[in-house]
Amino acid sequence: MTNSLEAAHHETVNDDKIIFILDMEVIDGKESKVDDLINRLVKNVKSTEPGTMIYQYFRSPGNKISLYEVYNNNEDAYYHVTSYLNGTLRSEFESTFSVKGFQVLGDSSKKLIQMYKDYFEEKLK
To answer: Cα-Cα-Cα-Cα dihedral of 95, 27, 103, 21, to 10°?
Structure first.
């Protein structure tokens, strides 16, 4: 029998990728606007953020949305967060989705950690 730890998938030890996983719910009354907003968000990221490897939304029953984002490295993730914070779609995103969970996978830089800590502390006030 194979040990499950040995059978697990592993990337290289020095992998610089940063992954964000957001679990969200659609805010009541915004359901009809979700598909259009997601299409515009994806188009914007694909056309303005070359360091974004994956930026993909998943819809689940009960108006639940998951967002899976993969960046080449800390700099690309930082660029994305800065673009989001200063972008024209931020207010629409925040008025459409309620973030219920946020995970960051990878070896985040102190600068990146501070940026998303500041953002979520502001949102939770």
So the answer is: -90
Task: Tell me the HSE value of 119 on the side-chain side, using a 13 A CA sphere.
Answer: 16
SS3 31: helix
Does the model's pTM come out above 0.90?
A: no
* Residue type at 115 in one-letter notation: M
Q: What is the pLDDT of residues 58-97, one digit of tens each?
A: 999 999 999 999 999 999 999 999 999 999 999 999 999 9
* Collapsed DSSP state (helix, strand, coil) of residue 14: coil
Separation of alpha carbons 68 and 25, rounded Å: 14
Distance CA 29, CA 3 (A): 49
70-75-79-80 Cα dihedral, nearest 10 degrees = 10
* Listed residue (74, 64, 82) closest to 104, CA to CA: 74
DSSP annotation of 76: H
Q: Residues 91, 96, 101, 106: what is their CA dihedral angle, to the nearest 10 degrees?
A: -50
